[in-house]
């Protein structure tokens, strides 16, 4: 791209009406089924405002069909649209962020092209949609509405314009990135990555999600951990019932503060940060009840510190636990880093850091490195490139 970028201010056909009833949705399904080429797909969530990660607007664009903006609250079942696009390539930016909420409403791609991941593999330093459209296509997208509350109804016109523009150039970006990946000899690698995303099963619910409370490193004792768990689970039930973000019900910082202080009365709780004068008496009593439940638990029912470790220990502990493994990991990281630099891509896209740790902690025989990588989910292109690097690292001796 040369010259100053051009602001992209309006969708080519203007802002389409929001599809919010069955008859209008049926027309969209027919139009997109009759379209040609790949389909650009995007979804807007209300993270930070609503409970969960559901979609509150779905945007699509396809040659011959134009752009559609669909309200998945009014039209919660888009499986007919998903079926109409079966076998069609879906172009998404950061696909793993949108696929879970699309799956909930019946939209699951068979084939996809992820423009963010393509940018990473091609070595672009900035891979946000706006940055990619500007550097690759020479247009500036207005990004001021990315963090708004998309559950708002009716959606303001400037938000709808922003949403329509997000899919306006997505297929053009995909085409340009395909050419660049092909030029670099990485197109087959990208297709393997996209196939892995499309075929991945839905993520399992996270075990003990309360352990991810921000500030948990300050919580040392098991009784305090029990307070975090009780407050987190109480907050989650309230947030789900009210359909608001959990952070709007009670902050993580307040949960940790109460866990450390272990208040025995509502008065003591109300003196803590996060439970001040704006918290009503009834609310304070429900939080204190959660603290009291944790205080009353027998020692045998208290959560254990840390999560059960299923893989290697933290790398910082390797030097003490197994110096030879630490030496292998150091050599492997250096080799992977050098290879990623030569290939102009982030190390984590070349091979998962967790995979490297697992291979170095429990090293397979030199002839079995490729099989070990495949067992950890590495794609064929990764296995081909990384196996020689890791095989050399596994022969590293501790000092």
Automatic annotation (TrEMBL):
GO molecular function: 3'-5' exonuclease activity; nucleic acid binding; nucleotide binding
Residues in HRDC domain copies: 221-301
SUPFAM superfamilies to which the protein is assigned, alphabetical: HRDC-like, Ribonuclease H-like
PROSITE patterns: HRDC (PS50967)
Pfam families: DNA_pol_A_exo1 (PF01612), DNA_pol_A_exoN (PF18305), HRDC (PF00570)
UniProt xrefs under InterPro entries: 3'-5'_exonuclease_dom (IPR002562), Exo_C (IPR041605), HRDC-like_sf (IPR010997), HRDC_dom (IPR002121), HRDC_dom_sf (IPR044876), RNase_D-like (IPR051086), RNaseH-like_sf (IPR012337), RNaseH_sf (IPR036397)
Biological process terms in GO annotation: nucleobase-containing compound metabolic process
Protein name: Ribonuclease D
């Amino acid at each position: 791209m040369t010259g100053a970028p051009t602001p992209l201010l309006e969708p080519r056909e203007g802002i389409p009406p929001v599809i919010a009833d069955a008859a209008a949705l049926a027309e969209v399904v027919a139009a997109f089924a009759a379209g040609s080429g790949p389909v650009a797909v995007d979804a807007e969530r209300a993270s930070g405002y609503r409970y969960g990660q559901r979609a509150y607007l779905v945007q699509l664009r396809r040659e011959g069909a134009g752009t559609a903006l669909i309200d998945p609250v009014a039209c919660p079942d888009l499986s007919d649209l998903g079926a109409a696009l079966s076998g069609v390539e879906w172009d998404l930016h950061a696909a793993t962020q949108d696929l879970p909420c699309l799956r909930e409403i019946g939209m699951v791609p068979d084939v996809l092209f992820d423009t963010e991941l393509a940018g990473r593999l091609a070595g672009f330093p900035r891979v946000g949609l706006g940055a990619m459209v500007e550097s690759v296509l020479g247009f500036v997208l207005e990004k001021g509405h990315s963090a708004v509350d998309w559950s708002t109804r009716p959606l303001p016109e400037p938000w709808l314009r922003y949403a329509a523009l997000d899919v306006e150039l997505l297929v053009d970006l995909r085409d340009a990135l395909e050419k660049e990946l092909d030029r670099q000899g990485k197109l087959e690698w990208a297709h393997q990555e996209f196939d892995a995303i499309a075929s991945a099963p839905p993520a399992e619910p996270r075990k003990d999600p309360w352990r991810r409370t921000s500030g948990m490193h300050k919580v040392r004792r098991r009784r305090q951990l029990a307070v975090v768990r009780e407050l987190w689970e109480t907050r989650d039930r309230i947030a789900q019932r009210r359909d608001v973000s959990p952070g709007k019900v009670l902050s993580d910082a307040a949960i940790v503060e109460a866990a450390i202080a272990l208040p025995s009365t509502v008065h003591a709780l109300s003196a803590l940060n996060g439970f001040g004068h704006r918290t009503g008496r009834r609310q304070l009593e429900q939080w204190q009840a959660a603290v009291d439940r944790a205080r009353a638990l027998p020692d045998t029912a208290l959560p254990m510190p840390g999560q059960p470790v299923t893989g290697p220990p933290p790398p910082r502990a390797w030097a003490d636990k197994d110096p030879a493994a630490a030496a292998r990991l150091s050599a492997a990281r250096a080799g992977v880093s050098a290879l990623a630099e030569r290939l102009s891509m982030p190390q984590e896209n070349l091979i998962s850091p967790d995979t490297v740790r697992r291979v170095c902690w429990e090293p397979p025989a030199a002839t079995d490195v490729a099989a070990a990588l495949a067992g950890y989910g590495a794609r064929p292109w990764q296995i081909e490139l990384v196996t020689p690097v890791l095989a050399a690292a596994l022969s590293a001796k501790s000092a």
